[in-house]
Amino acid sequence: MKKKMIKRVTGIAAIAMSAVIFAGCSTAKTSSQGNDQTGSTVKIGVNLELSGAAGGYGNQMKQGIQMATNEINDKGGVNVNGKKKKIKLIIKDNKTSTSTSASVAAQLSNNDKVNAIIGTATTNAGTAAIPNETKAKVPALSPSATDPNFTLQKSGKVQPYVFRACYQNNFQGGTGAKFIYNNLKAKRVAVLGDNSTDYGTGLAKSFKKQFKGKVVDTQYFSAGDKDFNAILTSFKHKKVDAIYAPGYYSEIGLIIKQARQMGLNVPVVGSDGMADAKLVQIAGAKNASNIYYTTPFSQTVAKSNPTAAKFLKAYKARYHTDAPTFSALAYDSTYMIKQAIESQKSANSVKITKGLADIKNFNGVTGKISIDGHHDADKPIAVEHLNNGKVVGSTQIK
Amino acid sequence: MTTLFQQLINGLSLGSIYALLALGYTMVYGIIKLINFAHGDIYMLGAFWGYYTINFWHFNFLFALLSAMIVCAAAGVVIEYFAYRPLRHAPRITALITAIGVSYFLENGMSYLYGADTRDFPQVIKQVNFNFWGVRVSNIQILILATACLLMILLQLIIKKTKMGRAMRAVSVDPDAAELVGINLNRTISFTFALGSSMAGAAGVLIGLYYNSIDPLMGMTPGIKAFVAAVVGGIGSVPGASLGGFLIGLLETAVQSVGLSAYKDAAVYLVLIIILLVLPAGIFGKNVKEKV
Predict the structure, then answer these.
(1) Domain at A169-295, CATH from 3.40.50.300, 3.40.50.2000, 3.40.50.2300, 3.20.20.70
(2) d(CA B75, CA B72)
(3) So where does this one cross the membrane (chain B) (predicted)?
(4) pLDDT tens digits for range B94-144
(5) Distance to chain B for A386, nearest Cα, Å
(6) Cis preceding-peptide flag for A353 (omega within 30 of 0)
């Protein structure tokens, strides 16, 4: 008798609970045609890796976003259908964790009611945030998630609310492969990729698929590794013509230093994760010779691009260091959202989504950006050449 | 053949860093049965100290090394005083969790204060390569190996020949009995922390010079690997920790040189599991029967 009673009580409780939950859902549904712009500000949420493994990149992006926002606000703000509205940033740290990133996305879109989200730095954290962003109909623009599948659903259709401001891996890896085979005439190549990020593994994979010569050896390292002597010694033993090293400057800098110190002087070719002034500092200027990387953004390209030149100068004045690629990408992301708002004459989140998808020939720091049907950023690519730590030339790759 | 010897050199220079770190783990464990997870972060502090003194006070390498050892020794004592001393009689797991907390505190504190960016360590000693029958050895590799060996011998002498060393050994056997015969327990434990932390500080400066790159999270992985090295050598044993460090360094190099670089960390942890199953006391550890 007693047992039955308890059962019934829990049953009722369960029904009551689920009713409450569903009630919450239905209220959320009826009001959602995205988040409208309210008051005198446009709210932009920032979902970034400010601590944890990718904390360094996230903080550089934060600087780029803050700089862009200050510039926009100093000029009065974003033009929303004739009225100037200031941008209000709501910055949250996802701690380089997928679960935190998902909850940050939910908080930003449901509680803070942001009109658009910039983030995340990494593909993993970004993918985890997609369901919450899609549910709330808030667009998310990632400055640096490079995995080809990031903007695609499982079925291959495009994710309606997800965009990126950077290259996707197949494009960049393929360019590296063409450059090594056609321009450097290297036939025996070793691949040394960062396997702690989708960026590194994705580039290594697409490089191997598209390289016409022989990939002699493929080795992986993880972020934070400091000793590459063993791997490089075995590369030297195998007599490679070039090394393709997709990863970030902090490790590639060490790879260059250690390779040169053991007398392995073959070209080292990498990707835009290397395009940072720190690379030469870590490798040592003397060692940083015969280095190439694919990049949209560079000091030489900047000379022919007034937007980039202005950005580099302003960044240096504000943070007293040369602007890293991540800051440039995040800076562009902020201005892309501004352009989306102004072209749609509305800061409603669904409208911004449409505006982002329509971006054509946007004049960014990292080149002329057009958003294609897969929500990828389509922009020119160049290969920069370093000698003695200085950029000595760049080659356009078609 | 030259490749083999080259890899041996690579392994030894990596191993000497692990060995220096493992010493700190093993000494602290030997005395208060605490695995001090913050030890790897003391090594990071040492590297940052070296970075600042060389860049801003223009210390030469020797001064930077010695001052880093002193500063890290002080940091070790302070951490022991505030974090571990109040827990002297608490269950061991409490102290262990505190150690992890201290480690997070140091890592994130440094990230907050100085940024999570990687920095380039000032190159105060110019690298010169020597060729021995085709095998390349740099002066920095020799310096690391020599400094590590020198410090290990010095440590062994302190433990075996001095009065403080004798007190340390006594406390490690039985803290209560040691206190009964008039050994100042707190001072001995502080001294142990100071000694272990100064080794980590030296390792930090050496690694900064060798790899030219430091960041606030640099202590995490080497810290854990040094812990594995201490276990392999027999935790609590000083010569064991040195040997364990070199073994782990050589193992990592060997795994990478046969082309399994993606699994080098996995190999180290696999060794930890095997050692714990087959030889739980480690190579040099004494198999002490615990009375129940």
Answers:
(1) 3.40.50.2300
(2) 5
(3) 12-36, 56-83, 95-114, 140-159, 191-211, 226-254, 266-285
(4) 888 999 999 989 988 888 888 777 788 888 877 787 877 777 888 888 888
(5) 18
(6) no
